[in-house]
């Protein structure tokens, strides 16, 4: 329970009054509090620009907060059940990289599920940490990777008692959680930190019908996307720490490496205001969303050929718990893939889903969702039935992950060459390659490209999915092993 007055929004108030103060702006940014006249300024209006200042007197500094940012972060820590909170201007991606860089030095081990977002892999590159991957549960009906198995965690810890940290996704993109309290108990008993990716779970602390939040479960650090589920502007997130295993000054130093020296006051104001809103109104607002999602699931489950997963379905499939504000709909029994359904809903019904997978589509709801949105969703899904085909949707579900050849950081720094995808079998990847969303790499730097990866890439390309890598389409950046053996770096 929050102890501070959560109606307060110190940063938002200060920047608002600065914008209205008629100060002569001889500093950057160059739009001069909206005085500039261009199409964008005229479209969005003056208020957005009035909130966008750089570092005027009295507005505090995110890299060493002492004033209103410090106060706003303390209110956020209180609301999210943490000891310290840090505003992030580069999304939860920045927080995840910072957590891993804070916890691990080069070559130190971190136990981490393989279905992590690319920012965790980038955290491994930046820190030089050695990943000890755990395989997540695979939901073989839906073809998606879920949480981790406690027995596997125990075995992994027994094999790697020198690991510094355990990384957990709370929840996965699809809303599925692992038994986090048990993970924390086991990890702490072995003197390991617990770091949580809460990109999709920043709202957990505000309603007890939702899975437990990382901070409430006793994790040491978590990073959450306020912009995904709490209502702030895209890219604005938060990093939380709790307990005495993490030194706050080390976290601040790491964030200062990863952060712009011109953090967006607009983002900070939107975090401050959204935090206050969810702290004050979140329980009631989330109760309403959860009730609406339950009703919507029931309605979807009346539509022949569609299945909206309930919490019980997820638990039956070895998920520990489920965030009911996400709705996964299995569409493949209609003979269409999730990718086709995603496009049909957008093109024909004006409905933008969060993502598609082979068998399903995912809706992410929040305190901004209205009953009208959900009525249109159900209508769209009824319309989808007309696109039914007499086809069996089969895509091989991957139960294994590629073998590792070297640490991600070494592969990142190794000499490289570019090969055509069809020639990449048995090469060592030097970059992340992923379908976006969800942004979970199919292969990461240092892994050996196997036949399954090549088949997956072919499959997702044929579905029209967005494949992200750093290289021109059709090519993969791989380690040049001939040169690498002569390479003597110690990274
Ligand atoms: C599981 C997961 N972790 C981390 C991130 C990164 O979050 P952000 O977009 O706030 O940087 C995402 C983004 O989609 C994600 O899905």
Task: Tell me what you see in this structure.
It is a single chain. The protein has 491 residues and is of the alpha+beta class. Helices cover 38% and strands 16% of the residues. It folds into 3 domains: 10-278, Type I PLP-dependent aspartate aminotransferase-like (Major domain) (Aspartate Aminotransferase, domain 2), CATH 3.40.640; 286-387, Aspartate Aminotransferase, domain 1, CATH 3.90.1150.10; 408-484, Ornithine Decarboxylase, Chain A, domain 4, CATH 3.90.100. It contains 18 helices and 20 strands. The strands form 6 sheets. It has a 7-stranded mixed β-sheet with strand order 1-10-9-8-6-2-3, sandwiched between helices. The protein has a 4-stranded antiparallel β-sheet with strand order 11-13-15-14. Strands 18-17-19 form a 3-stranded antiparallel β-sheet, covered by helices on one side. Helix 1 packs across helix 12 (265-300) and helix 14 (338-349) crosses helix 15 (371-384). The protein is globular and about 65 Å long. The two termini are 44 Å apart. Bound molecules: pyridoxal-5'-phosphate. Pyridoxal-5'-phosphate (PLP) is lined by residues 91-93, 96, 117, 119, 169, 173, 197, 199-200, 225, 237, 438-439.
Give the names of the bound compounds.
pyridoxal-5'-phosphate
Q: Provide the gyration radius in Å.
A: 23 Å
For the sheet with most strands, the description reads: 7 strands, mixed
User: Looking at this structure, what is the CATH superfamily of the largest domain?
Assistant: Type I PLP-dependent aspartate aminotransferase-like (Major domain)
Broad shape: globular
- What number is the mean pLDDT? 95
CATH topology name of the largest domain, in short, is Aspartate Aminotransferase, domain 2
Separate helix tally: 18
CATH architect. name of the largest domain: 3-Layer(aba) Sandwich
Low-confidence stretches: none
Major sheet strand order: 1-10-9-8-6-2-3
CATH class of the largest domain: Alpha Beta
Estimate the helix proportion, in percent.
Answer: 25-40%
Number of strands: 20
Please indicate the count of domains. Answer: 3
């Amino acid at each position: 329970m929050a102890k501070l007055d959560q109606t307060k929004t110190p940063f938002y108030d200060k920047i608002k009054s600065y914008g209205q103060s008629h100060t002569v702006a001889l500093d950057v940014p160059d739009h001069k509090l909206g005085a500039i006249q261009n199409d964008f300024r005229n479209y969005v209006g003056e208020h957005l620009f009035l909130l966008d200042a750089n570092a005027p007197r009295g507005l505090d500094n995110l890299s060493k907060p002492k004033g209103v940012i410090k106060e706003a972060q303390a209110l956020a820590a209180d609301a999210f059940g943490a000891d310290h909170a840090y505003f992030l201007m580069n999304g939860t991606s920045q927080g995840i990289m910072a957590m891993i860089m804070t916890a691990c030095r080069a070559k130190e081990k971190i136990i981490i599920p393989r279905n992590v977002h690319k920012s965790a892999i980038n955290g491994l590159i930046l820190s030089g940490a050695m990943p000890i991957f755990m395989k997540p549960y695979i939901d073989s009906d839906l073809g998606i990777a879920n949480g981790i198995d406690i027995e596997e965690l125990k075995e992994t810890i027994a094999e790697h008692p020198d690991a510094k940290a355990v990384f957990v996704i709370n929840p996965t993109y699809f809303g599925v959680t692992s038994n986090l309290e048990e993970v924390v108990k086991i990890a702490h008993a072995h003197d390991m930190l617990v770091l949580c990716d809460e990109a999709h779970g920043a709202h957990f602390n505000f309603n007890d019908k939702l899975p437990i939040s990382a901070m409430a479960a006793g994790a040491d650090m978590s990073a959450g996307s306020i912009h995904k589920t709490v209502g702030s502007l895209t890219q604005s997130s938060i990093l939380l720490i709790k307990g005495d295993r993490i030194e706050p000054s080390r976290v601040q130093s790491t964030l200062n490496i990863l952060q712009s020296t011109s953090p967006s006051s607009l983002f900070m104001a939107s975090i401050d205001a959204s935090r206050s809103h969810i702290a004050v109104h979140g329980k009631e607002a989330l109760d309403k969303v959860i009730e609406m999602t339950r009703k919507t699931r029931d309605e979807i489950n009346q539509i022949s050929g569609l299945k909206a997963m309930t919490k019980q379905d997820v638990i039956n499939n070895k998920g520990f718990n489920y965030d009911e504000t996400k709705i996964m709909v299995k569409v493949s029994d209609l003979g269409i893939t999730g990718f086709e359904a995603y496009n049909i809903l957008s093109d024909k019904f004006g409905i933008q889903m969060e993502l598609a997978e082979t068998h399903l589509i995912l809706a992410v709801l929040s305190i901004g969702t209205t009953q009208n949105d959900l009525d249109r969703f159900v209508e769209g899904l009824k319309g989808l039935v007309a696109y039914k085909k007499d086809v069996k949707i089969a895509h091989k579900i991957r139960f294994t992950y590629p073998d590792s050849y070297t640490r991600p950081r070494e592969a990142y720094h190794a000499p490289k060459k570019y090969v055509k995808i069809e020639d990449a079998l048995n090469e060592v990847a030097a970059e992340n390659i992923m379908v976006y969303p969800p942004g979970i790499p199919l292969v990461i730097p240092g892994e050996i490209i196997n036949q399954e990866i090549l088949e997956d890439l072919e499959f997702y390309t044929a579905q029209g999915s967005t494949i992200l890598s750093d290289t021109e389409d059709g090519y993969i950046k791989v380690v040049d092993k001939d040169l690498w053996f002569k390479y003597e770096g110690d990274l």
